[in-house]
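Subject: for your reference before the review

Hello V.,

The reviewers asked for a structural picture of the protein, and I figured it would be easier to keep everything in one thread rather than splitting it across files. Below is the amino acid sequence we used in the manuscript, unchanged from the supplementary table.
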Amino acid sequence: MEATSSFEPTVPRPPELEIERVYPDLARILTDAEQDTDGLRAVAQDSILDQLKSSGHLSAAIEWAVYLLCKDGMLFTTILKKQQLRTVQPGVSEAKARTIDVPAIAATEIFWEKWRSGLLSPRPKEVVLLIHGIRTFAEWQPMVKRVLEEIPNTKVIPIKYGYLDAIRFWCPFFTRQFAIIDLRRQIQDAKASNVDSEVSVIAHSFGTYAITQILVDNPDIKLHHLILSGSIVPRSYRWDYVRSRLATDVLNDYGTKDFWPVLAKCLTWGYGDTGRHGFGRNGVTDRGFDYKHSDFFNEDFVRKYWKPWIEANKVVPSPWDEKAPPASWFLNVLSILPLQWLLCGLVVVLVYWIFFSSPKYADVPATATPITLVDATFQNYVSDLAAPQLDIIVGNSLDRAVVVKRLKLQVHRIWNLHRLPTPPQAYLPSEHNYLQWLDNKGTPYTRELPLQQEVPARGNSRFTVQFQERRSEDLFAAHTIYFATISLLADADNKVIGTQDIAFMISFNGAAVPSQAELADAISHEEQMGRPIDRTKLNQQIRDNREMLKEVSKLTSTRNPALQSAIEQLKPNSTSTLDDSQRRMVEECDYRLEIIISELDKPPTSKYILDKLDRTINGFSGPYYGLYPENERRSIDQISVNLANELPNRREYFNGLRIAISDVVPLVTEVQLASQQDMLIWNDVQKAKLSELVRKLKEQRLHLKD
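And here is what came back from the structure prediction:
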């Protein structure tokens, strides 16, 4: 082989394809050569010629390939110093070595740069996806990526689906699918982003199970290479169903010290022990190693066994295949034991023992108690939205009195609604027997409320429990839905006399899902006050509130009126969806104002005044129309119809009424601010403010009459 940069080969030039086919093998030969002290890899010309010929290349293609690379400055000729033995004298066995010069070929840095970039390789582009197993974040992936990307035209993409714990790995229902769906999306995305490349996969442990399930369910996914390690794929997997979408045989590397696939097979459903014993199936090449489950991830192994398969479809046999000892009798027995059924049976027995065979409380007798929870419903009163009250009736059929000692409240879940720019709620202190404070975070949690409620012999006892939300930063920020279970315990032995699920809403913010008219008014008010509204964010908050209310509506539990009304607002035929003209009629009607004016001579107690003010201002502003009792809504609707008929004759009266209303609203705000000092105890200063309000309202009444 004449290999210089100045002499063109005398043989005819072969086709370019034949010349290009020489480049990968030539690069492989130079790569395998030992480096000298200068880092140079040189191979004797005769050795290069012999190796390339043995690979099936023609002499002409070899000479032209070397000549063209030398001409472009990517190869150059050099001299290797080689030791050669020579005989001293005939018949004398002693020999002496002499140094001879051997023509050789070496590559320049230009050659290696073009080779790594794929410019010299006819090899097609290939994308290799790395899929890890459970209980790991796949720290091995960067090393495998670095080694395999030494192959020209090869791109490696590590794929992660998060930390999959042993419980979700074991459960045969639903939990596995989340990881598999995530993997499928990533594989399809990698495939779509590299349409000109073959796709290959190297999977480990749970990743082997996931990729085989994806192949079955997604006929559009085709793989060039598939390497499995630590496999938990069942031996019965139907490779014949997917063989048409696999360009090469499946390479399955298993470890004879790996017991995790055996445990996966016997402790749950869907997995196999092929990561310990192999498949033994057509189209799958099994290689055994003296490895544990994750011992495959060392650089020497990847270079020796995985890189040749990806680069040149070359299977490097494992020396351990022939000398591996037989599996222990323990693993053989474990592979056939249906331990998953035994484990499932134990879970069923445990669940039955906890929830059915034993009482919920250890100190409750198994026999039925004559003390019963007759009823527990929420009261329909003016401040139900801010402080719902549960009306409880307890019955006693004994000949002696009993005492209800405790109320146990188990809060299962809360929904924190978005606060919307709607008028705040006035809070009216009301009479109640017991008060339970709640927290709007940290669920689930349990609260126990001490009671001292006597139930007479053969009689009933009725009492109320008021719920309020504890907020250190702002009491009026409450806007929460609670779902809980109450349990009543009686007498000294704390017998459970009844339980009931309840759901209730606590809010000072008003409507959870306002109508368009309410929203427009609220936005206009906020903007007039110099507080601009982000309408995109507001619309998203309303949608979120709707979704939370829809979720709550599915609960079969006792609801307070405020929550029930908010849920009814979701219905298409809800009365809270009045059009703008109807709502303005309701806002303009003097029905609510006349209720206060006609009864102003009554004592100015905080309960009375705030009750009327709350109902009045809500009637005018509109957001809480849906919270009124049905009979009052009918009254408002009827008055709206009457006003619509009389509107031409009463226009001047309505104009005066609007002026009166605009004067009343600041007074309501003033009272609400005064009441923020203490929502439960009214002092003399606050009572004086209420008296002053009564006086001003009387003046407004005279103004209206004039």
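For the response letter, the relevant points are probably these. The first strand starts at residue 42 and ends at 44. The mean pLDDT is 75.

Happy to draft the paragraph if you're swamped.

O.
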